[in-house]
Design brief:
56% of the residues lie in helices and 6% in strands. By secondary structure, the chain is mostly helical. The chain has a three-stranded antiparallel sheet with strand order 3-4-7, with no helix packed on it. Helix 6 packs across helix 7 (154-160).
Length: 374
């Protein structure tokens, strides 16, 4: 009782009835200062992770060891889903959301300390991007064939074969093969723009014709489309640095002009049923593209082209590696990608830069013919 009186005297709300689950539900319902997509991710963590593991514990009784146990189970679950390379990153994000919520609980006087802040975590390391060098690709394809020989379907074998890391980057010839493969696809221009500018999928889906300057050969990125609980919404860019102007060059301008002609043909074919919009990239009937659908369509086309697996987001990495190989500085690449600092770019692309530099040296050597074999 003396302990309860001391807490009350220090402004702590002594409410043993409110559970951690109750507080977190109220917290996310009142969280209006974050993007809709971010709030949806927070709510998913609350419903799928926090409430099942911590929901019944009184908020005042929540301790660091409860959270540690939860995070260990989250990490184990990630490893069982063959995503061990991202398991630590997942637990870091989960802990960060809970820590933020409990910081608000402290400010509101529900608790005196933040148990999430007391949890010891391994040092967070950003996954390094690696290029699909020929040696890495050969090893991966051999593993795919081994799995097929054991009875797996080609599709399943490609998914099960181990990759060097979760963030893989196509070589220039891979990218060329992919663009050749999708050249007759109605969204060829989208894939072209993403591959040459490093735009995020939400950014290309949200692009409007007013954002394209055909004369200057540039695109201004001012918005994105996001899928929030199954509903496509327009939102501002990911961060202040994400709003930027990128060049598409003369060829990019011609690609977009051809795409606009194809879109106009779709509009005429659909007639009154066509949904008139100012978006550059839309569905056949003119309605907005779902970024989640685009992700799956990209994977389907990459599989059909028999290319080593990458994510749509890794087209950003491919664009960065090609810029680095062509001699662009880390600062220029950072600006084009919309990173908030060159430190982020350097951290992600150090290994890519090494691979790109090696490729550039090989290309230079090929331009210097020698009479004697070396």
């Amino acid at each position: 009782m003396d302990d309860l009186r001391a807490q009350a005297a220090n402004g702590i709300r002594v409410d043993k009835r409110i559970t951690t689950g109750d507080f977190l539900t109220r917290w996310i319902d009142s969280k209006h200062n974050v993007k809709a997509n971010t709030a949806a991710h927070y709510r998913r963590y609350i419903e799928k992770v926090f409430i099942p593991h911590l929901g019944s514990i009184a908020l005042a009784d929540l301790r660091a060891h409860h959270i540690t146990t939860m995070l260990q189970e989250v990490n184990t679950s990630a490893q069982n889903r063959r995503t061990s390379s991202t398991g630590n990153a997942t637990t870091q994000r989960v802990r960060a959301v809970l820590r933020s919520a409990l910081s608000d609980a402290m400010r509101e006087g529900y608790i005196s300390t933040n148990p999430a802040a007391l949890v010891k975590m391994p040092t967070a390391t950003r996954t390094k991007a690696l290029v699909w060098t020929r040696a890495r690709e050969d090893e991966w394809r051999a593993e795919v064939q081994r799995l097929i020989n054991k009875g797996s379907t080609p599709s399943l074998a490609r998914r099960k074969a181990k990759r060097p890391t979760s963030v893989m980057v196509w070589r220039g010839d891979h990218l060329g093969t992919f663009l050749d493969h999708v050249e007759q696809h109605r969204l060829y221009a989208l894939f072209y723009v993403a591959a040459h500018t490093g735009m995020r999928r939400g950014e290309v889906c949200g692009l409007r014709w007013a954002d394209v300057d055909m004369d200057a050969g540039t695109i201004t990125i001012e918005r994105q489309l996001v899928n929030v609980v199954g509903k496509v919404q327009e939102d501002s860019p990911k961060s202040s640095a994400s709003g930027r102007v990128v060049a598409i060059g003369k060829e990019g301008v011609e690609v977009l002009k051809a795409h606009r002609a194809r879109t106009n043909a779709d509009r005429l074919a659909w007639g009154p049923a066509y949904s008139h919009t100012s978006r550059v990239f839309v569905r056949e009937d003119g309605t907005d593209l779902d970024p989640s659908w685009l992700l799956k369509e990209f994977q389907r086309q990459a599989f059909k082209a028999d290319l080593p697996p990458v994510r749509f987001h890794d087209l950003r990495h491919a664009a960065a590696s090609l810029m680095l190989a062509s001699g662009s500085s880390m600062k220029v690449v950072s600006t084009v990608l919309g990173h908030s600092s060159t430190a982020i770019t350097s951290d992600v692309y150090t290994s890519v830069y090494d691979d790109a530099s090696a490729a550039a040296v090989d290309a230079m050597r090929a331009l210097i013919p020698r009479n004697q074999a070396r």
